[in-house]
Specification:
12 helices; single chain; 456 residues; alpha/beta; 3 domains; FAD/NAD(P)-binding domain; five-stranded parallel beta sheet
Length: 456
């Protein structure tokens, strides 16, 4: 009898693992349980669908359940795994028809993340949305089509600013609330200030240092957001407070949950811990902890890039080959209309928290040669270790296509352990439509190198 792989979760990590395992070892029996209606879709694309850049939600689906089935994966929708027994090698599955117990030789946990939900009154009212799944986007667009005029977005992180832009472009009056000093708390406050200016420049009301107290309602529907600075009226409310690993199933099964709140695995994505089925339980995606290569500690990062890579690692190992997940450095990009935002590695506060004595430098330049049409401003900030000059992180905020993708150069330098002095000498490309003679990353690296030298 063929070995059976049971996958919990039909999105990035789970289906990447299932697809890779089946491709490399076709005789495996692979069953994937998904409690929703869709598989392998881009959660990151939902704001752009809401904004109108994507015509409709099917465009966000990379591979449908039918496509997975044609590849030999038994995809079962509307099926929620409610318990797993590592000792027995079984999973309890609930469907509309009842419950069944399914045995497995290998278990892949890809339960993803769940929205952070404070204990606020009114959070479950009609008109309050957590935009994580395709049905969330469908419901939000229906509310907009029904005549919503005012929106309040709670949280000014990636999802918050992307949804704010989407709703502004839909013609709504939008306010964004955040308890931090500036939007985009993953940036240092001085870089977040540029994001704030851009948000206000497109008509978004930005309120920082705000504590939300609850959602005001009438007849079961949201009418506003109550804060310690008064109430903001709203027809729709978007909760963009971030997510945390969905680990209840793993915790109840006695699997190891790390200090950062995710399932702890090794670099092969095998679940850590002394349980009877050790070696047969794998986990990947937003539900797991990952190793931060710069801070040298475990953290949680909800990104499709990591989830898909971890899924491929799991599938490769399931097939009897060797693969390992190398860790993360926190690279991410986003945008607000023409403003592009990128970050990687450690910011100032995170560097200090990780025990580094860091220096920084921030430069302002242009995205192209200054005499070229559409040359826009760009700010680059780099963080380096005092003395060694080792690059610890970087942040970019700039206008025009491709500004934020310069963060990939910085990420490569952080990943490979370059110093800012070495980064300043990297042979980067130049032509006036793409960059000034000295690329902004080069200029920032030189400035940071000089700062590190002066501080010795």
């Amino acid at each position: 009898m063929a070995e059976r792989v049971v996958v919990i979760g039909g999105d990035a990590a789970g289906m990447s693992a299932a697809s890779m395992a089946k491709r490399l070892r076709g005789e495996l029996e692979v069953i994937a349980f998904e409690r929703g209606e869709h598989t392998s879709y881009s959660m990151c694309g939902i704001p752009y669908w809401v904004a109108g850049d994507v015509a409709d939600w099917p465009a966000l689906v990379a591979r449908t359940p039918e496509e997975h089935r044609r590849n030999g994966i038994d995809v079962r929708l509307g099926s929620e795994v409610t318990a797993i027994d590592p000792a027995a090698g079984t999973a309890l599955v609930r469907t509309l028809r009842g419950t069944e117990t399914v045995g497995w030789d290998h278990l892949v946990i890809g339960t993803g993340a769940e929205p952070i939900r404070p204990d606020w009154p009114g959070l479950d009212a009609d008109g309050v949305f957590e935009v994580q799944r395709i049905p969330d986007g469908v419901a939000l667009l229906a509310a907009v089509a029904a005549g919503a005029k005012r929106a309040v977005v709670i949280g000014a992180g990636y999802i918050g600013i992307e949804m704010a832009e989407a709703l502004v472009r839909r013609g709504l009056q939008v306010a964004v609330l955040d308890r931090g000093p500036q939007p985009m708390g993953t940036l240092d406050p001085d870089m977040g200030a540029h994001v704030r200016a851009a948000m206000e420049g497109v008509g978004i009301e930005v309120r920082t240092g705000i504590e939300v107290e609850g959602i005001e309602t009438f007849a079961g529907r949201a009418t506003g957001v109550a804060t310690d600075h008064g109430t903001l009226p709203a027809d729709v409310v978007i909760c963009g407070l971030g997510v945390r690993p969905a680990v209840a199933l793993a915790r109840e099964a006695g699997l190891m949950i790390g200090e950062a709140g995710g399932i702890r695995t090794d670099d092969r994505q095998l679940v850590a811990g002394d349980h009877p089925a050790q070696g047969r339980i794998w986990a990947g995606g937003d539900c797991v902890e990952v190793h931060d290569r710069i801070a040298d500690r475990f953290t949680t990062v909800a990104l499709g890039t990591h989830a898909n890579r971890q899924g491929r690692v799991i599938g490769t190992n399931l097939a009897g080959r060797e693969a390992r997940f190398a860790g993360v450095i926190g690279t991410a990009v986003s945008k607000l209309c023409s403003l592009e935002i990128g970050r990687t590695g450690l910011g100032e506060r995170a560097a200090a928290g990780a025990g580094f004595d860091a220096v920084t430098a921030t430069i302002e330049s242009t995205t192209r040669a200054g005499y070229m049409p559409d040359a826009g401003p760009i700010h680059v900030k780099l963080i380096a270790e005092r003395g060694t000059g080792r690059l610890l992180g970087g942040q970019i905020v700039g206008h025009n296509d491709g500004a934020a993708k310069r963060i990939d150069v910085v990420a490569t330098a952080v990943w490979t352990g370059l110093s800012v002095g070495e980064l300043a000498e990297v042979d980067l490309s130049y032509a006036p439509p793409f960059s000034p003679l000295w690329d902004p990353v080069t200029v920032a690296a030189r400035a940071t190198h000089d700062a590190a030298q002066r501080s010795q």
